[in-house]
Amino acid sequence: MTQILIAGYYGFGNLGDEAILASILSSLRDETEDAVEFLVVSGNPLGTQAQHGVHAISWERADQILDGCRDSDLLVLGGGGLFHDYLPEHLTDVASFRGASQASFAGIPVLGRLLQKKTMLYGLGLGPLRETSAAELAMAAVQLADVVSVRDGRSLEHARRACREAGLPEGKVRLSADPAFGLRRAHRDDARAELTAAGIGSRRPILGICLRQWQHDVAEGWEQEVAAGVDAFLAETQGQAVFIPFQHGIDSRPDDDLSLAKRVRSRMGNAEPSRILDRNAQPALAAALIAECDLILGMRLHSVIFALGATVPCVGLSYDPKVSSLLERAGLADCILPHSEWRRDLIQNKLNALLSGSLPRPQMEFANEMRSLARQDAAAAAELLKGTPRPSSAADRALEAVALRYFDKVEDGLESIAEHARRLLRERNQRERELRELRETLGVRLLSAYWSFMHLLFPEGGRGRFEYRRGSQFLRHLVLGEANLRGPGLQSHTDRRFLLADSLLDGVSSDAQMELVRFEARVRGARSSRIVAVFSTNQLIESEGQRPSHFALELARRGIPVVFLYWRWDRSAFTTQERLDDLILQIPMDLVTGRPNELFQAFSGMERTVLFEFPHPAFFALMAVANGAGWTTVYDVVDDWHAFSKQGFVNWYQESAERHLAWAADSVWAVNRHMADKIEAYGRGGVEILPNGCPDGIQRIDTARELRRGDITLGYFGYLANWFDWRLLASAARSRPLWRFYVVGYGMNISSETLPDNVAFLGKQPQSSLASLAANWDVGIVPFREGPIALGADPIKTYEYLAMGLPVVMTGSYPPPGSEGFVRRARGEAEFVRFVEEAAREGAEWRARRTGFAANATWARRADELLSILDRGSARMIEKRALFSDAA
Amino acid sequence: MKCLFVYRFLTRGGVESVLRARVEGLPRFGVEARAWFLADGEGRDLFRGVEDRIQVGGIHDLQRFAEHWQPEVLATVDTAEVIRPLMEIAGSRVIVIECHTPYRENRLYLHGSNGHKPVIYFVPSEYQKREISSTVHTKGRVAVIPNPLREIFLKDVRMEGQGPPPIVAWVGRLDHLKNWAGFFNVASKVGQVLPDVEYWLVGSAPGPGIAARIYREANARGVLGRLRWFNGLAQEHLPNFLDRVRESGGVLVSTSRNESFGMTVAEAMARQCAVVVPRSGPFPEFVEHGVTGLLYASGRLREAAQKIVKLITNGDMRESIGRAARTRVLASHSPDVALRVLADTLHEIAFNGHP
Asked: Which chain A residue is nearest to residue B57, measuring alpha carbons?
């Protein structure tokens, strides 16, 4: 299939850039009639995939970018202002791909040339380009591309000059429009609902405000001036204002619009008639919100673009020539406020003039012209795709060969580094064991006792202590030859030695700390505003997916970073960090339990949530630190741990610890009503029900597999333990010799000889083959013994059977809420057999109902519910937010 | 005039809070103030906005800085190791030794200071003055300097909270002297009368192992299932916490065995929170029984529990005590008042050589 690679400043939470991508994709899909696949190079591949429904790769993965370019038929760079002086880089760094940078952007047409791929610069903005370094990268990109479209006159000049300097025809460059002009707005009802939810009433006029952080060439107090200007305008017109942030990041980061909006609003004399939309709006919704306003005070270029597209009058706060250039092109030069004029009176006057109609309004003709130009870019891309391949000379082929050899070497190098990292990990495990042994040695204990004794003998501050210090320094001088008895040299040397000892004693924890530090930097680089930590009983293994693993994976797919803390039985066991690109860090939880501050003091300024997936007493201390640091704490009740402990499992369990966890958490979730009731009996009200789910695509059959069938064929897959009711299964099998039973699972040694002839035990099977086995069954069964363990469980297999279209008969556990119509709960063998017969007779129409139910119970849906619970907030969560608010 | 304060650690403790208020507020009273810390901890953010007035470095660097900056007064806050080095460079300048620590073992250094050049001692309460006077044998040379509250505790009190369940809070360092275990003892007794009360423990663990002891003690007292522990809470959030306690109809209790001043109690009072404190140490100096708080005989935790129940079940009394407490504590410990006392004392010392 044909593939187009699109590279730009995507996946960084900038609404304007996301609008550009959405619009490019939509236009290209129209032009190519959906016959093309898209691969986007992004700062947050998972987020981009989720938001735009495309495949995405990271700007930090040179190998993936190379493969992506090699496998694509057209490379598109843009749109938006990718080349400028603000963050200059050097031509020598081109194609290094260490993140989304100008050198990386220019690397795309470079790869295009080396790999003989057609390349288009799409709706680009170039400039300001006064610095040679940035200009060179932009020139190279223009010169290497086959087609260049630029969004404004200034960019056109730059691009034409690049062509002239290389002796290339200027005809490949065309003046177009910002691709975001082609964006389809969300429905106005959605925008109105959003405004109402934010507290904006029907009173007019409504002023939309879209500001960005900016320090270059502007007066220091400009934020105050804007606040005062808006203040005066609202006081005079009795209107309302809504701040619409376009760049969501971490509060106080230089590019975060939300914190700027909060700051400006706080400086208004009367902030009451204004509101801030603090939700991360999608581009289509932001465009619709702007269309609902009566006038716009826009600093963000794309707020002006959306206003022009919806013919909403606007004043452009021109921090960069691109804003004034656009308004001039629209014939609205009078609506520009250059930064030298950002004064309260001028802002108020401009807004008043705009409202009274004494300034020109945007015209629909202009918007239509821009949309038409944007569409022509898509047509040009489609044309380029259809056209004859680039003629390839021997020289081109030689270049390509060299490039591929070079990249192969890079890939080999990466693999070698990965192997080296794995070897170091093994060595680290070994050192950790040795360190533990060292700590237990007599020497370390004696040293500790010696220091305690010295403190007792010479208390701090006394003359004795002073003389002791002098004496020991003198001796050190004699023995070690250290020169300066009182100077900083000796002191820092001593400090260094203690630091070294400290780092040795903290060896392994320091590693966890370093991993956290690096991960935090990565998360902040990805502009994530939310982080979730999960304390799980299991490692993160997708194919054996337990609830915490699925939550982690689904959250990461939504671009929410996850610190996954897993229980390990063997302290030398480490998981390699193969999911860092997905923004998942995996750490053994024992490395954190001793030093919880390292985790809970990190990620400040973000919305931080921690899920405790089991009630270990060690979480008492973790919960305290998490609560003290302002994390939203959640106890997720997935099983009846008390019942497990009574059966001799989970010997760590203490009911008092679970009671505490349930009380101290800001929110408590349970997989079913039974467990919710149990926790509420502890005195903790408001437990949310969040059932289990099933993975997307669990029903897909890779390779068909035939099994011998009976009059009715039943099957079970999953963990086998003493709550599995073998007696019921065997008895039912004996009473129905013409039925065929299949048991797929692990956890117990089963001898086939002890089972009736019509029961087949297939052992553990890969998850990918479950659907092919279940395709031979008429009924899925969950034969659990009656008792608290089964009552507390919400078996995941129930959802999986339903996704595979099977009716389900279960004992011991309750059906998931809403599934009672096609999941039967039997009591005793007779009812079990009768229900199986009934279920097997169900018509084909039931199958659709079952799969329909399962489709609404996927882990993806559960993750949506999870986020919805967090966003909605329990009383405790609201209290927590207030406790940690900035009001103080 | 100039004054240099020296403290051992730059962390987020009570002394650092006091020093922050001083370096920020003293210039208003004609005193240029700097704070010097021997070791960097995690307290730098406490000095946001006045970072240029603090420094971290070793003793040798401190000496060089003091010689260069030429402060009229050199003050150490419970930092024994700098007393002698400062005296070496003091010349005619005055050395002030501030003693804030309630821990007797940490005051042993005062014995060591006797043999040095004459110094002046600052303490935060009359009680602490009595405590150290017997140690330093320098009666008449010990001045009581009130601790200033941070501005964040002074903001207006607004009554708009979430209501019950009532919260009984305990704030402080989790060690033997502050007697966190006594809090659980009190809580268990309150719980027998008022089972719906929630207990907040706000404090940092000074070392490993304390969490397990807290767990055991709370469990043994039957309060684990109603307990929320906020470990490591940054001080800037404390006013919100105290507001929530007040709005819940709850109180703050101290079970401390000894204090030099009782800053957390004063902070709670500043947030109009009713307090129940021992009738010992410095508390009677600013908590008047039945007017600005309730006192109980030190160590009589059953009595403390009864007082807590009384305040929780008598809203009028609780609110009137809360209001009076705020008025009382602001009158003596708002930054302007407390810093004026300090500034006046420093001016006198610089001028006369003694207060």
From this structure: A488
